[in-house]
């Protein structure tokens, strides 16, 4: 099933970044972002409230971009992580049947219902402009590295 068909049918509502981002992720970003796995999230299963589904997604994935396919700000944000060789998870809200409910939930969680809404290491870091600013200030990659540190610590104690 193609990702968008899955998204529309509600079986698998999250897809990875572009294929090449995935490739790069395996080489470098996977280690850097702690996202080398390919778990699919339960986001979109109707039994759970959108806020909880978002919480689960952002705690399972180092970088999560809530996006719309038609939005060039979103494309820019994806390109930023791609160019940093950081793997990321994208949730295309315009491909979700209840996308606007997720936008409402994001509003509750972040104070805005605009896209993109970007989370790193479980924390909201802002929209496209904020994220580019963090990158320019040299603060974005250290945030991503936090996921890796957390993950290697977990391994240590297993
Ligand atoms: N400064 C914000 C601008 C975000 C923004 O205005 N997003 C528009 C699309 S570009 C939006 O979400 N509009 C409402 C919607 O699509 O529901 C950012 O950089 O993320
Ligand atoms: S840039 Fe136009 S919808 Fe985001």
UniProtKB/TrEMBL annotation:
PROSITE patterns: GLUTAREDOXIN_2. Pfam families: Glutaredoxin. Signal peptide: none annotated. Residues 63-125 form the Glutaredoxin domain. The keyword Electron transport applies. It comes from the Eukaryota. Its main location: mitochondrion. CDD domains: GRX_GRXh_1_2_like. The keyword Iron-sulfur applies. GO terms for cellular component: mitochondrion. One of its GO terms (molecular function) is metal ion binding. Keywords: 2Fe-2S, Disulfide bond, Electron transport, Glutathionylation, Iron, Iron-sulfur, Metal-binding, Mitochondrion, Redox-active center, Transit peptide, Transport. It is found in: Mitochondrion. Glutathione-dependent oxidoreductase that facilitates the maintenance of mitochondrial redox homeostasis upon induction of apoptosis by oxidative stress. Involved in response to hydrogen peroxide and regulation of apoptosis caused by oxidative stress. Acts as a very efficient catalyst of monothiol reactions because of its high affinity for protein glutathione-mixed disulfides. Can receive electrons not only from glutathione (GSH), but also from thioredoxin reductase supporting both monothiol and dithiol reactions. Belongs to the glutaredoxin family. Monomer; active form. Homodimer; inactive form. The homodimer is probably linked by 1 2Fe-2S cluster. This is Glutaredoxin-2, mitochondrial. It comes from Acinonyx jubatus.
